[in-house]
Amino acid sequence: MFAKVALPFPQSEFFTYRVPSELEARISSGMLVVVPFRNSATVGVILELLESPDPIKGNIKDIIGLGDPELAISGEILKLVEFIARQYITTPGMVLKAALPPGTMQRRKLYFYPGVSVCSDKPDLSIDKFLAQVSDNPGRWSYGDLRHFSSIARSQVEELVQIGALTVSPFKGTDTTSLRGKERWIKASENALQAKLKKGSKSETLLKSLLASPNGMASNSLKDL
User: Fold this and answer.
1) Spatial CA neighbour of 58 closest among 42, 44, 38
2) From start to end of 65-163, where are the E strands?
3) C-alpha distance from residue 79 to each of 52, 72, 198, 201 (Å)
4) What's the confidence (pLDDT) of residue 56?
5) pLDDT at residue 153 tops 70
6) Average of pLDDT values for 118-124?
7) 3-state secondary structure of 31
8) What is the pLDDT of residues 72-95, one digit of tens each?
């Protein structure tokens, strides 16, 4: 399985990544994922899942792991994002970068949080100790802090992220500013098509018209809504 991933760069509409077998059952369009990009990692949003990739040049890299599940984008919002990108001649990734909480899609440190799956059927004391420390201090350490953990290698940590024993997020556990931004985004996402867009209102009619118009709408047609 492969994924078209929107990244916060203006060069391309999407980038293609391979979905590791460990993630296939847990991944879907709209989810945030952590992907390698050049010499660092960044957070992107899955636009579409594919059984086979479109012809591209170069090697296809694997998705490292899942991003923050609470910031997943709904299908309707993804359509709106793609519409805005076409209208303003930009990429979906640049639109999502502006819409998500500040710092979510920047190339920056990614902090470790406890995952949802068990680690392995082969116990490893160094890995168990590292996971216990992350569980006690969620969001405290990033990839750059691994130098303080001499008993575990970066490759082992990346494997833990892939199997879901760890998850990564651009939000540091003690960063209250980022956490408030995250909370505001979650609340806005939940209310966007409910409280703020009341059934039968002009706002709801406009949004549905935009989503149903792949080529956009002329400004003079808005007066009919």
Assistant:
1) 38
2) 65-66, 111-114
3) 22, 14, 20, 20
4) 65
5) yes
6) 57
7) coil
8) 899 899 999 999 999 988 999 999
Please identify, in words, the CATH class of the domain defined by 2-99. Answer: alpha beta
Give 135's contacts (C-beta < 8 A, 6+ positions apart): 114
Q: Residue 207's pLDDT band (boundaries 50, 70, 90)?
A: low
Q: Are 31 and 45 in contact (CB under 8 A)?
A: yes
**Which whole-number Å values give the CA distances from 6 to 46, 48, 121, in the listed order?**
6, 10, 35
Sign of the alpha-carbon torsion through 140, 190, 33, 94: negative
Which residues, other chains included, contact 23 with Cβ-Cβ below 8 Å and sequence gap of 6+? Answer: 63, 65, 66, 162, 164
**Whole-prediction pTM:** 0.56
Can you tell me the distance from the alpha carbon of 173 to that of 167, in angstroms, rounded to the nearest whole number? 13
Residue found under tokens 């509409």: 13
Distance CA 113, CA 142 (A): 10
Q: What is the DSSP letter of 53?
A: P
Domain ranges in the chain are 2-99, 111-169, 193-224
Single-letter amino acid code for the residue at 159: E
Distance CA 197, CA 21 (A): 39
CB 94 within 8 A of CB 85: yes
CB of 169 within 8 A of CB of 110? yes
Most trustworthy range by pLDDT among 128-137, 177-186, 206-215: 128-137
Paired with 166 in beta bridges are 114
